[in-house]
Specification:
Number of domains: 3
Distance between the termini: 54 Å
Shape: elongated
Helix content: 40-55%
Radius of gyration: 35 Å
Length: 813
Amino acid sequence: MARDLTSVLSNHLDMLRSIFKIAFRNLGRNKVYSLINISGLAIGIACCLLITLYVKDELSFDRYHTNLDRMYRVVQQFGGPAPTAPEDYQVWGCYPVGPALQNEFPEVEEVVTFSGRQSFLLQRGEKRFQEENVFFVDSTVFEMFSWKMIAGNPKDALKGAGKVVLTESMAKKYFGNEDPLGQLLNIDNSTNFTLVVSGIVEDIPANSHFRFDALLSMATFRKFRPEIFDSWDYVDFYTYFMAPADLDKQAFVAKLPAFIKKYTPGDQEYYLDVERVADVYLHSKAVRQPGVTGSLSNIYVFSTIAVFILAIACINFMNLSTARSMDRAKEVGVRKSLGAQRRSLVSQFLSEAMVLSFIATIFAVTLASALLPLFESLSGKHFEVSLLLTGELIVALVCLSILVGLLAGSYPALLLSRFNPAVVLKGAFRNSTEGSVLRKGLVVFQFSLSVVLIAGSLVVFSQLSHLRSQDTGYTKDQMLIIDFGWDGKVQEEINAVKNSLAAIPSVISISAQRTVPGGFFPKAGTLIQRNGGDMEMNGPDLYEIDYDFISNFDLTIVAGRAYSRSHPSDSTKALIINEAAARYWGYPDPNDIIGKKFEQWGKTGEVIGVVKDFNYRSLHHSIEPLTLRLSPQYSTTSIALRVHGNDLPNVIAQAESIWKRVAPQRPFIYSFLDDTFNSQYRSDERFGSLFTVFAGLAVFIACFGLFGLTTYTVEQRTKEIGIRKVLGASVGSIVRLLSRDFMRLVLIAIIIATPVAWYAMNSWLADFAYRISIGAMMMIIPAMTVILMALTVVAAQAFRSAHTDPVKALRSE
């Protein structure tokens, strides 16, 4: 019995050895086709692997939190009409919401409130840095969020005033290799405002919607501004809460209107909703996010591209495998006449296809590893090479290799194994019509995908170019912005500082403000008189500016006048708004709102001017109501210098020299407004670059496959070409003959792909408030590009064959 089992195993091993030996012999015998097959499939799988890493990273945001399935975030809307869509809410809200929710609802187990992002100048000895990613937060933060504390006690690290928790990188920045616990940091050059380092946490993972460099205890904030913690009007907080995993979100939200009515004044318009933290990164539409958000549509797009690329690569693989298998008909006939079973023939063809597929997969992993640094620079993400070798991914790749091998090898295996050996050995065998139809259908399919991808690339870059070239309604070029935070000494001497900087010969004009276009701005509860005389509340966006801001940024006054130093009452009793705000309060003609009463943050008076709408935030958004409030010097945080000339380094050097003289206590921190403006579209530009690269690779793989298929087709018709040349056919006629069939397939692909591409890209453009329209040329160019590429590939092969000496083609059978 044991001897029989050994014999059976030995026979199976011999059979497998024979199968693989024949498979590798065939690979060596057809080096060009094997190279095309393996290279095309390897590139396709490598692209798919890289896109998989990107998509997995996007889907992994916040998944490291232990309590993720129990964590929620409050979104709010106030001072305006009832929200009708998720984007009508904002994450920013007031502090009392959290404690009131915990007091009112037993299901709210824990509440953690963060302040809005703060900007502080932190100092230790000679080390001074402007830190932009700092938050005040409740002491219970580490009970909800799974940020790992590596030094200090998470339970009391943020209890009491004057405490700060730093990330590991931040601690090293200020303290090097010293133990930071118990050490002091000064804030904003004040010896009276110091912080004690009470904890160190690991650097926040990149796949987190909420990231920080330092957390200050909320008790510190409360010490300086206690009144805002009971105010439902002061908006500068993010509220999170923890609830049971089985919380009925809809039922909970249904109780919020009654809750708001109980806790807020009856005449106040206030609306609440909640979001699962697990959904925040990809699904939240609310504005005023505390950190980055992703795009679900981009994930769908890249996932679709990955499928497209893999499909094109597999189609090439299947096409060439099917086409080349016909050359082995006589081999099959001989083997069948010698007694080979159909099952063994099927096994042979399938095993050969799978050997190719496995080799391609190994090359794909190697190629993806080599391309990872380039992919990181394009995507703005970091990936470890080890991610390509996880157990989950290895299993997926093995399954993919088997599947591709089965798909590519099944048709020729089943077709050839059923041939009658007598017919084949007599030479009566002809290429299968079924195989020809299948190959043509696959060619149409892959070139349809190519047209869609080329059209997509064209639309993406046209839209990005449109965003960059759009007239924003203000001057942003060569605008130097100097950021001084809330430095009291600079604010106190703001006019003298401006005069010193204005003396630089290249400076055209200068202004001081709290906000510049593309930057952070608050909202302000504002009452403005409508036509009927009643005062209507809304919470428009707010710019706090000085007298020179409107002229410095070249804003256009369309009604009334700008702020003027010749009108002393402007500082206390005047307000300027934009056209969108005038329309909101019921004045289509902006001239009609001039002289109407307003109330805003303790200031009352009249609207004196309306500026033409300008894009003060990303062009993803339409222009919203905006008020431009003339603010006291203590509300300014930056200075904007409009400069001319090409010697910007010299201007910067002069400004820095003056700054060190007039504000030695403050580091010279500068940027250019056009860089700030363009940074709003960095994620769009990365998307465009990735889309174009992968689309280009998909088209390359399609052409690569077409090259292989054309080469094979030309080889099959070598004798026909020789006969035609002997009979007097011209090179041009032979090229047309060989190109015609492939061009017909490409034209069918274009007809199929054009409406698909138009629909898909219109759906993508829907996320932009300012978008291009897809004209006929955007569909014609991809079509002509595909025709040109296909014609080049096919004609080159046909031309080479047409120039072959017909004697060589006809010399042997």
